[in-house]
User: What shape does this take?
Amino acid sequence: MKRVSLSILIMFFVMQSSCLAIQSENKGDKKTMTNKIVQTAGRDRLGSFAPEFAHYNDDVLFGENWNNTDIAIKTRCIITVVALMSQGITDSSLKHHLLNAKNNGVTKEEIVAAITHTAFYAGWPKAWATFNLAKEVWNDNASALTDKEKYAKTILFPIGEPNTAYAQYFIGQSYLAPVSTSQVKMFNVTFEPECRNNWHIHHAKSGGGQMLIAVGGRGYYQEWGKEPVEMKPGDVINIPANVKHWHGAAPDSWFSHLAIEVDGKDVSTEWLEQVNDEEYGKLK
Ligand code: MN
Assistant: This one.
C-alpha cells in the first residue's frame, strides 16, 4: 500500500458505497482460515424495491469484488475510505468504512497518514470532515471501556462495590452502592446480565416490606405464583411484607434498582432457593 499512489487507486475504485454492513464469515479450519465477506445490506434494504441493484451490491460488489484477494483487505478498506473522502461523501457510509478499516487492522497512524496524503489531492475541507469521523472511530478511550463502565455512563447513581456480603444469595455478579444511610436507608443494587437474587421474603409483624425503584437497564420482579413483571427505569414496585419474591436483571441487560427497606416491626429477610435456569430462561 505504501508504494501505491492513493490517487491512482481512487480512480479505479469508483463504485460509490452507501452505508453497508460488512460481515466476516469464518470459513475452513484454523490452518486455512480465510474471512469471506458476506453482505446482505442490499437485499435487506432494497431487495424488494431494487432487486437487481441488491444483487449487484451483495453478490458482485461485496460477494466478488470485496473478496478478490489480489490486494489485501486492509488496502481495500483504505482505498474505499479514500474514494468516499475524495468525493466528499462524509456521511454515515464513510463512518462505517472507517470502522471497517479499523476492524481490518488499519492503525490510527495509517489512517491519519492516508487522510493527510489524500488531503493534498482531494481537498483540505474533505480531510477535516474525514478526520472528525476518524477521531471518533479510533478514539481509544471509547473502545477501551468495559461493559460495566459503559453501563455506568447510562445511570445517574453509582454502581458501587461488588456485593460480596450477599453474593451467596445471588446467581451472578451484583453490586451495591449506598445512596442514603440516614433517615430512609437506600441502596442502588446493580445486576450484571443474567444476575438475579434467590427467592426471598422480607418478614415483618407489621409494616415492613421493600420498595424497588428501577433506575437503569432492564430487569424483572416476580412474586411466587405470579407472572414476572418487567422493570425499566422509573418503574416502582411495592413489595409487601411476607411475600416470597425475587428481583434481578434481564438475560441480555444490566439492571439497577434502588432498594428501600420499609420500616416495620420485627423485620428480617429469609433467603430461599435459587430462581432456576428453566424458569429464568423463559424471560426475554
Ligand atoms: Mn426483595
About this structure: Residues 200, 202, 210, 239, 245, 247 surround manganese (II) ion (CB under 6 Å). The chain has two domains: 6-144, 161-280. Confidence is low (pLDDT under 50) at residues 1-33. The chain is about 35% helix and 25% strand.
